[in-house]
Amino acid sequence: MNIIDGKETARKIKQEIAAEVKKMTDAGERPPHLSAILVGHDGGSESYMANKVKACAECGFNSDLIRFDEDITEEQLLKEIQKLNENPDVDGFIVQLPLPKHIDEQKITEAIDYRKDVDGFNPINVGRLSIGLPGFRSATPAGIIDLLDRYGIETKGKHAVVLGRSNIVGKPVAILLMQKAQPGDCTVTVCHSSTKNLKEICREADIIVAALGRPGFVTEDMVKPGAVIIDVGTTRVPDATRKSGFRLCGDVDFDNVAEKCSYITPVPGGVGPMTICSLMKNTLLARKGLFNK
Ligand code: GUN
């Protein structure tokens, strides 16, 4: 069994990005600029945001964090998005989710100009991804594909089973895995809450991508010997022994599954660090004018 080290892979990718940015700035060009909007003070969002700002610094990007109170209206937020859409110094920006209940997340996502949508959540980017056109790929699925690529894992003709059908992980990762590409070219089955015989389907899988948000859901009896296991789960489980008061739990029963599979991503340190890396890659692409060619 091999551990897929997302932390180390992300470190290498960020180094490669930083080297490219250095070339840009040495040539007198402006470095990429990522802006991020954070509404309110959700604990998870705060820590995601701190990691994103840190990653920008590591890559040599300019970044700024724009904070608003919980009570900002949808209209005000839409105006702020418009300002960023029109600001030529901002290459890409994100609005951290979740947003307070009085704000329609879909409306916000669609208000972000697709050419600056480095999260890849805008339906234009999702649609372009679906038909294999260049666009911003959503960060977690892109990070998973990069891990498969960097570890040289053969995917062509393999049966990939995706657990979960969310718009930000399950659906886009299924699309990327079925795309005629390397990594890709898989036969993909997407399982969800109404799937019958889920265990049997998993047992047929060469690759399992678990993105359900249910700690320890994938057990050893669901895994074919030699399968590749990608764990996207990051549920916060209360843990009094930790300073933070919680620990991150994946969707896979790691200790028992690890012995049976060929490759596995740990939680934390697997897919998580790659997600931020993909955001950095998208921001660099935005700076280089992905849609201006
Ligand atoms: N909340 C949790 N993950 C993400 C992400 O990747 N992007 C945004 N905008 N919000 C998130």
Major sheet size, sense and barrel closure: 6 strands, parallel
What is the distance, rounded to the nearest whole angstrom, between the alpha carbons of the first and last residues? Answer: 43 Å
- What small molecules accompany the polymer chains? guanine
Strand order of the largest sheet: 1-11-8-7-5-6
**Overall structural domain count:** 2
Average pLDDT reading: 97
**In DSSP terms, counting alpha (H) and pi (I) runs of 4 or more, how many helices?**
10
Please give the number of β-strands: 11
What is the CATH homology-level superfamily of the largest domain? NAD(P)-binding Rossmann-like Domain
Q: In what range is the share of β-strand residues?
A: 15-25%
Q: Which descriptor suits the 3D outline?
A: globular
Topology:
Layout: E1 2-3, H1 6-26, E2 33-39, H2 43-59, E3 62-68, H3 74-86, E4 92-95, H4 105-111, H5 123-130, H6 139-150, E5 159-163, H7 170-178, E6 187-191, H8 198-203, E7 207-210, E8 228-231, E9 235-238, E10 246-249, H9 254-258, E11 263-264, H10 271-287
Parallel strand pairs: 1-11, 2-3, 2-4, 5-6, 5-7, 7-8, 8-11
Antiparallel strand pairs: 9-10
Helix pairs in contact: 1-10, 2-10, 6-7, 6-10
What do you see in this structure?
It is a single chain. The protein has 293 residues and is an alpha/beta fold. It has 2 domains: 28-113, Rossmann fold, CATH 3.40.50; 139-272, Rossmann fold (3-Layer(aba) Sandwich). The longest helix is centred in the N-terminal third of the chain and has 21 residues, at 6-26. The mean pLDDT is 97. It starts with a strand and ends in a 6-residue tail after the last helix. The chain contains 10 helices and 11 strands. The relative contact order is 0.16. Helix 7 (170-178) links the parallel strand 5 (159-163) and strand 6. The chain has a 6-stranded parallel beta sheet. A 3-stranded parallel beta sheet has the order 3-2-4, covered by helices on one side. Helix 1 (6-26) runs parallel beside helix 10 (271-287) and helix 6 packs across helix 7 (170-178). Helices cover 39% and strands 16% of the residues. Residues 48, 94-97, 119, 139, 275 line the site of guanine.
